[in-house]
Design goal:
20 strands, Alpha-Beta Plaits, Amino_oxidase, oxidoreductase, 14 helices, binds flavin-adenine dinucleotide, Zeta_carotene_desat/Oxidored, five-stranded parallel sheet, oxidoreductase activity, FAD/NAD-bd_sf, 3 domains, seven-stranded mixed sheet, alpha/beta, about 35% helix
């Protein structure tokens, strides 16, 4: 029997962030991860000299970026050029990304160009909270007139949310993500695996125990209070605080009588978002100018990550393509569509191919701020003292990894607030962004 102050279940970005903040507050903390390495969906794999994430990953200037800076991570990488093509009716046209492309793009009429530029300018400074309870479609149709301007906005907001259709996502959070994207996303050198390594080191320096290859099988919550964590290998850990940094479905499974708790609502209301991800490393680009494209009438994205990040040891170009999927996705069809996008952007790419990775149905998020949501999950499970949740699905209006870090900090903050220790840990480095 071991005894600690906090057990974090799950060693992805949410779990590691929660563990770091708990340890900063002086809590004896352990992270238990069932895989043989930390990182969850943010790991990277090196294949034939090229670094591949589990699909395209960009770090926007939101909560995660601010948190990682606050923690002193170095985050090596660069902002890519914003110049982009749009894919419309099987052809490439420059999208309006600066004054020159706005002037020359054949996609928009003069009136459309004026509307696009003025909307983007207004949006960059707008308070988006009034749009938290309307869908992306309602926002677009209520704020934009020109049909092509609408199409382009749908495609930008799809890339910001990873959700294929505009009816489910609440507009406010996705518009904030777009505002963050407009400040410039960061492509990380050697992929997000480097970020995980930095988080691992930080946690370890703060004395967090990091255990891999052990699966938590249940949480003992007798009399409505956290008592023990039980693992599949028979390990039992005595604790009063557990942060479940897993999916909502796993969090539900781990807790006895979860049906009588908010975990049931959070699992039932969750809508999973998936994407087909094709990553390739090419010896060289057949069309060096064609590095980035948004699908306008196709739910796809193409980006050469090597234009801003160090992603191969021998100069190979690492390109990520995404197919945003709906409920009835067909991974074989998605692969053909993504290869078609590669044919369009980089004709002859097959002759330059070093290595390829296809992930037919990746879970991008287990849940998000959508129109059918009954309540925001966490930070505490109200029925069980000492039980908390974190993860990108436990969003209170943040998107993707920003929701992972924000929910992790909310969980620790809630835990500490019961002891009056909140201030020292969270407010010593204010004003990062
Ligand atoms: C294709 C793709 C593209 C993405 N692009 C972006 C992007 O551009 N920008 C962005 O901000 N975000 C992006 N994301 C999202 C980002 O990767 C996630 O938000 C983030 O990695 C989620 O971290 P997490 O800790 O919440 O969950 P996870 O990484 O899933 O971690 C949960 C961990 O819990 C462990 N676990 C589960 N059950 C148990 C158990 N019983 N015992 C012990 N351990 C357990 C799992 O093994 C896992 O490691 C993308 C994701 C994908 C898949």
């Amino acid at each position: 029997m071991q005894k600690v102050d906090v057990v974090v279940v799950g060693g992805g970005i949410a779990g590691l962030t929660a563990a770091i903040y708990a340890a900063k507050a002086g809590k004896r903390t352990i992270v238990i991860e069932k895989q043989n390495r930390l990182g969850g969906r943010a790991v990277s794999n090196k294949k034939k000299g090229a670094y591949f994430n589990l699909g395209a990953h960009s770090l926007y200037k939101g909560d995660a970026y601010a948190t990682f800076h606050e923690l002193g991570l170095t985050l090596q990488g660069k902002k890519p050029s914003a110049f982009a093509y749009g894919i419309w009716k099987g052809k490439l046209s420059a999208l309006p990304s600066d004054a020159k492309s706005l002037f020359t793009t054949p996609l928009l009429s003069w009136k459309g160009k004026m509307e696009f530029a003025s909307c983007l300018m207004k949006l960059s400074k707008a308070d988006t909270r009034p749009f938290d309870r309307i869908s992306i479609r309602e926002w677009v149709e209520g704020n934009l007139r020109d049909p092509m301007v609408r199409n382009i906005f749908y495609s930008l907001l799809r890339a910001a949310s990873y959700v294929a259709g505009p009816d489910l996502p609440a507009a406010g959070p996705v518009l904030r993500q777009l505002q963050n994207a407009l400040k410039g996303a960061l492509y990380l050198d050697r992929g997000w695996g480097e970020l995980i390594e930095e988080l691992r080191k930080k946690a370890s320096d703060l004395g967090v125990r990091l255990v891999t290859n052990i699966k938590v099988s249940s949480i003992d919550t007798r009399d409505g209070t956290v008592r023990q964590v039980l693992c599949e290998d028979g390990t039992r850990i005595d604790t009063r605080h557990v942060i479940l940094a897993t999916s909502p479905a796993i969090a539900y499974e781990l807790v006895p009588f979860a049906k009588q708790t908010a975990l049931h609502t959070w699992k039932e209301q969750a809508i999973e978002v998936t994407a087909a991800c094709l990553d390739v490393a090419l010896k060289r680009l057949p069309k060096p100018k064609q590095q980035f494209a948004y699908g306008i009438d196709q739910t796809v994205l193409f980006s050469n990550y090597s234009r801003a990040a160090y992603l191969s040891d021998d100069g190979a170009q690492v390109i990520s393509l995404i197919k945003y999927q709906g409920k009835d996705a067909d991974p074989e069809k998605d692969l053909r569509e993504l290869e078609g996008v590669l044919d369009l952007m980089q004709p002859g790419w097959r002759e330059e191919l070093v290595v390829k990775q296809y992930l037919p149905r990746m879970t991008v998020c287990h849940d998000f701020a959508h129109m059918k949501r009954l309540e925001n999950p966490g930070p505490a499970v109200p029925e069980i003292q000492g039980l908390y949740v974190a993860g990108e699905w436990a969003s209170h209006g943040e998107v993707l990894v920003d929701a992972a870090t924000a929910s992790a900090k909310r969980a620790v903050r809630h835990m500490l607030s019961l002891e009056g220790k909140e201030r020292n840990v969270f407010y010593e480095h204010r004003g990062i962004i």
